[in-house]
Design goal:
The complex is a heterodimer of chains A (182) and B (127). By secondary structure, chain A is α+β, with helices and mostly antiparallel strands. Chain A has one domain: Heat Shock Protein 90. Chain A is 36% helix and 26% strand. Chain A contains six helices and six strands, in the order H-E-E-H-H-E-E-H-E-E-H-H. Chain A has helices at 4-17, 49-54, 71-80, 115-125, 146-153, 161-177, and strands at residues 22-30, 35-42, 85-91, 95-103, 130-137, 140-145. In chain A, helix 1 (4-17) runs antiparallel to helix 3 and helix 4 packs antiparallel against helix 6 (161-177). Chain A is globular and about 40 Å long. Chain B has one domain (25-121): Glutaredoxin (3-Layer(aba) Sandwich). A five-stranded mixed sheet of chain B has the order 2-1-3-4-5, with helices on one face. In chain B, a hairpin with a 5-residue loop joins strand 3 (80-84) and strand 4 (90-92). Chain B is globular and about 45 Å long. The chains are: A alpha+beta (182), B alpha+beta (127). Chains A and B meet through helix 1, helix 4, strand 6, helix 5 and helix 6 of A and helix 1, helix 2, helix 3 and strand 2 of B.
Chain lengths: 182, 127
């Protein structure tokens, strides 16, 4: 993956395929502690103890069409090579929560990249799933909650082209306003 | 803080309701961009972005976008499936934004399969 936003897209797509109704993505840029933290939490079917134990093994997957599962191992590796950490918490029926922390100014940290494109891709491809994106930069915060938008749209699909354009522009503007350094 | 304006959302709602009243069928084409880890690492998000721009520019409202996971042919990613209702699905391989634009203009809008980019016809079966 070239950007952290690709990881976000990958992990959140996994969450949607695990039957999640709401996926919460939180990015925290803390310049004081020099940490960038990504947290993805879903309410999907969750993992068994065995699946959770082997989730970082690149040669383990629950898929039948191939023998490798690289999404989580690559994210964990990306975090650890910047002096960060990776934790995974999951249980059947309780959903999954992962947290990856990165050295914010570390030379090996991938750039955040196009977060707006990743979120819009998620919303376009999964119009029935809700996404709550929270991005903190020290004290400033930007929040996008598709549940609020869905309520206002009153039956109009979230994947409508005008809607996606509006959301994309809003994310770009919001991240500029909070001064994201990612 | 940037806030989505209620008035903008209302405008979209009214526009979509007006469009819906004008046409009979909801969906004519479904385009699936395969968004497994392999697809994303190969550029599937950029392909989806190009597709969304084409839909926006053309103004069509009967094309539905979906995403799916890896189908096991990681080395052929990015993969895109175009399914015109009533016809067999066509799977395209090694798609990039330029190919996606061509596939949209020629296949999705005009029905002409872009044979040089085709991986397979039909739907995959997972055993």
């Amino acid at each position: 993956m070239l950007e952290l936003s690709h990881h976000i897209l990958d992990i959140a797509e996994n969450a949607t395929r695990a039957g999640s109704k709401t996926v919460r993505i939180t990015l925290t840029e803390d310049t004081h502690s020099d940490r960038l933290t990504l947290e993805v939490a879903d309410d999907g079917r969750g993992m068994s103890a065995e699946e959770r134990g082997r989730a970082l093994d690149p040669f383990f997957t629950t898929k039948k069409v191939r023998r490798v599962g690289l999404g989580l191992p690559m994210l964990a590796d990306a975090a650890q090579r910047t002096g960060g950490t990776f934790t995974l918490d999951s249980a059947p029926g309780r959903g999954t929560r992962l947290e990856a922390s990165f050295g914010l100014c570390h030379l090996d940290r991938q750039p955040l990249g196009d977060v707006a494109a990743s979120l819009v891709s998620l919303i376009a491809g999964n119009p029935d799933v809700d996404f709550v994106y929270r991005h903190r930069h020290d004290a400033a915060e930007y929040v996008l909650d598709t549940r609020e938008i869905r309520q206002e749209l009153d039956g109009v699909p979230m994947s409508h082209r005008d809607e996606l354009k509006l959301i994309s522009d809003n994310i770009v503007e919001g991240l500029e306003e909070i001064g994201s350094e990612g | 803080m940037a806030k989505l304006k209620i008035s903008d959302l209302k405008k979209i709602k009214e526009k979509v309701h007006a469009e819906t009243a004008l046409r009979e069928g909801d969906r004519r084409v479904r385009v699936t961009v395969h968004m497994g880890t392999c697809g994303i690492a190969s550029g599937a998000r950029e392909v989806l972005d190009a597709l969304m721009r084409e839909i926006e520019e053309s103004g069509v409202s009967d094309v539905v976008i979906t995403t799916s996971g890896c189908m096991g042919l990681c080395s052929r990613e990015p993969l895109v499936t175009v399914e015109i209702i009533g016809r067999e699905p066509i799977k395209y391989e090694y798609v990039n934004p330029n190919k996606m634009r061509q596939i949209f203009k020629r296949h999705v809008l005009e029905g002409e399969v872009q044979t040089p980019f085709v991986l397979a016809r039909g739907a995959e079966i997972v055993k």
